[in-house]
Amino acid sequence: MADDAFFHPAGTAEAQGHEYEVFDPTPATASVWADTMQHGAPPAALMVRSMEKLVGAGARVSRVTIDLLGVVPITRSRVRAWTVRPGRTISLLAAEMDCVDANGEYRTVARAQAWVLAASDTAAIARDRSPALPPAGAEQGVMPGFFSHLQDQGFLAACDWRFVDHPDGPDGPKQCWIRARMPLVAGEAPSPLVQVFSVVDAANGVSAYLDPTAVTWMNMDMTVHLHRSPQPVDGWVGILGDQLVGGEGIGTTVSRLYDGAGAFAVGAQTLLVAAR
């Protein structure tokens, strides 16, 4: 299947009393860990796309949590979203993604939730003291020193990467601008929020200081708190991220997310860290 999008729509289906949208993932969704599993970003974005359809006028998504329940295979996938808690000022949405397993049956591989809040004018008291993210460098790059041999494959090849030199040097927090080269769903222009979630899981790799030949680190979740609506310029999303790793095999990737106007969100990802 052509890599002109992360997913191709394949109609709708009903199962167990629920209606799903059905998709076929392309090789552009492939993870750096294995070419048979999806990177975390495309499934996250597909569930966000589904939940965003339920957001009413005058409301904004304030927090999204993604839980990856296991390996997300590059097989036919289906997604549905629903309202968990309706409300005029606060509501909670949920979504889940199923993929066809080795037995030809659908298995739930990921779930998501989103808090949605009523928007109001707080411009007079707005404050954000996030550090500025410098402009991107001119050179294309893919996590220098990490996964460079995979830069022409899967998700890495499906995105443009522009790194920023940081005064703390290679061991300090990483700074990068990233955008998807293709839409999430073929034939469909992604919303600003979908553009963000199409790449935000990459913070786990952008922020890495660990050597993947000696250590594995994999996230099974992603939480993003948005304090304003994102507006990526030409699809570019900035990431300022760092990894916090303890001595018991557990770590956290922390990140700030940027568009052309500055920071709009903070993110966190839980890491399972293990020696090879």
Automatic annotation (TrEMBL):
Source species, domain of life: Bacteria
Acyl-CoA thioesterase-like N-terminal HotDog domain sequence ranges: 31-116
Lineage: Bacteria, Bacillati, Actinomycetota, Actinomycetes, Mycobacteriales
Pfam families: 4HBT_3, 4HBT_3C
Acyl-CoA thioesterase-like C-terminal domain residues: 141-273
Name the UniProt record assigns to this protein: Thioesterase family protein
